[in-house]
Specification:
single chain; about 475 residues; alpha/beta; TIM Barrel; 7-stranded parallel beta sheet; Histidinol_P_phosphatase_HisJ
């Protein structure tokens, strides 16, 4: 079915390629029924900039200007290019790095009269989780393991879903990108089921996102175990290629079709506008028989079962990081110091594990109960302060051109080099975050300063003011 409500272009996204008009023209040429332009919302702080943006001299202010330019150009192209058979919509993909981002989404949506939003979470503990293996391992090291990363991610997702009620839920289980073989514990599955139930209640569409196949995963997002939970909860699905340029439009839609057939999904949904300009949900039935698949050569020419087709996209399992000897954190921006948690005196950040967490204001997404009226919704799945001891100062980490990550460095477009700061955290045996219980055995990141080109070695027993 020719639908995608999630797309980007290199004109307004530095880790994408091509011009926005090229992306639109490709979708029209393939006779998409509905195609959404959903550029990322601008990030608000210097430390959130990616290296390619730093190298280009960009700033949060210039990101805002770029997004405004996107809005202007997208509206022009929608007016100029839309056809009777292809509906073009103006969307926005969310960021949820810190609590304030949710209010920023609402502000931007009202300011620009955006048709719909793709509700996505790309960060855990202010660190991008979809960039590369090293960055993902640094989150695990910071939080004490993969299980906690999953819990924080799905709690953050819930907070985003509760406040924003996005029309489209983006790459639901993106947290599995570098840990596809990590089993879902009963606690994590409980969080997932809670999120699914809320999506079903407010009526959101969950995208089946084919970009996971470009990352060499075995299926689109969401994976089959979660997809079956969604089907049981009567979730409405839409389709997305999450294209990052014209060559990505309808990327792996042949395997996506197989995935729909394998899971007995016969209807998907798109968005449309009525005569009053109101965005509505439209159902498309008997999708596997749509001529789109054969017209665009998206049905394999050789006979194969859907499972055989998807098998070609399986990915070698990546084992979770287990106490790496060195955790290298490279930061192109953002002053930082690292101290052992026991050396910091803030009572707010160091509430005892015996204290009730329900009265503590959230510091980072997913770490505490949200400000929702029904706080009991989160009580059984809190991530305590001893599990996530990270200040609002945050940190920007290295973004490499890892093939699996989404930020592919464009050497021909990025000129010059920027020296980067490196912090190396050496983990000793029997030290570090183990049980998520002891504040004395964890780290917090606080505001400070590190001179450029300085290497800082942090021992677990040290308290360094750099």
């Amino acid at each position: 079915m020719p639908i995608s409500l999630h797309s980007h272009s290199g004109q307004y996204c530095q880790h994408a390629h091509g011009q926005l008009e090229q992306v639109i023209q490709k979708a029209i040429a393939m006779e998409f029924t509905c195609f959404g332009l959903s550029e990322h919302m601008p990030r608000s702080l210097d430390r959130d900039l990616y290296p390619e943006e730093v190298q280009l001299g960009m700033s949060p202010s210039s990101l805002s200007t770029t997004y405004q330019d996107f809005i202007t150009e997208a509206r022009r192209l929608i007016s100029q290019c839309q056809t009777p058979t292809t509906t073009l919509l103006l969307g926005m993909e969310t960021e949820y790095i810190r609590i304030s981002d949710l209010d920023a989404v609402s502000t931007l949506r009202a300011l620009h009269n955006i048709d719909y939003i793709v509700g996505s979470v790309h960060h855990v503990a202010e660190i991008p989780l979809d960039y590369n293996e090293e960055m993902y391992a640094s989150i695990e090291s910071l939080l004490g393991g993969t299980e906690t990363v999953f819990r924080v991610y799905f709690n953050a997702q819930y907070e985003m879903l509760k406040q924003l009620k996005p029309e489209v839920v983006g790459h639901f289980d993106l947290v599995r990108l570098f840990r596809p073989e990590h089993g879902l514990s009963d606690v994590v599955m409980g969080l997932i089921e809670r999120n699914i139930e809320w999506i079903a209640e407010y009526g959101g569409l969950v995208e089946i996102n084919s970009r996971a196949l470009k990352k060499n995963l075995g299926s689109p997002y969401p994976f089959r175990d979660i997809l079956q939970k969604m089907i049981a909860n009567k979730i409405k699905f839409t389709l997305s290629d999450d294209s990052h340029g014209p060559n990505d439009v309808a990327m792996h839609y042949d395997k996506l079709r197989d995935y729909l057939i394998e899971n007995n999904i016969t209807s998907v949904y798109s968005l449309a506008k009525d005569q009053d300009g109101k965005v509505t949900v439209k159902e498309h039935s008997n999708i596997s028989a749509h001529p789109f698949w054969s017209k665009n050569c998206l049905i394999p020419s050789v006979e194969s079962t859907p499972s055989e087709s998807l098998a070609t996209a399986t990915r070698t399992a990546t084992s979770p990081a287990s106490s790496p000897d060195l955790v290298a954190v490279v930061r192109p921006t953002s002053p930082l110091s690292i101290k052992s948690a026991s050396s910091c005196a803030s009572p707010r950040m160091h509430a005892s594990k015996h204290n009730s967490m329900s009265d503590i204001e959230p510091k980072l997404p997913g770490s505490y109960p949200s400000n929702n009226s029904n706080r009991s919704e989160m009580d059984s799945s809190l991530v305590s302060e001893s599990e996530l001891v990270v200040s609002e100062a945050g940190v920007v980490h290295n973004h490499s051109d890892d093939e699996v990550g989404d930020h592919e460095k464009k050497e021909e477009e990025v000129k010059g080099e920027v020296e980067e700061e490196v912090v190396v955290v050496e983990k000793q045996p029997d030290l570090g975050v183990k049980s998520h219980e002891s504040l004395e055995e964890s780290y917090i990141i606080t505001a400070g300063s590190v001179d450029e080109e300085e290497f800082v070695i942090v021992e677990p027993d040290d308290a360094l003011d750099c």
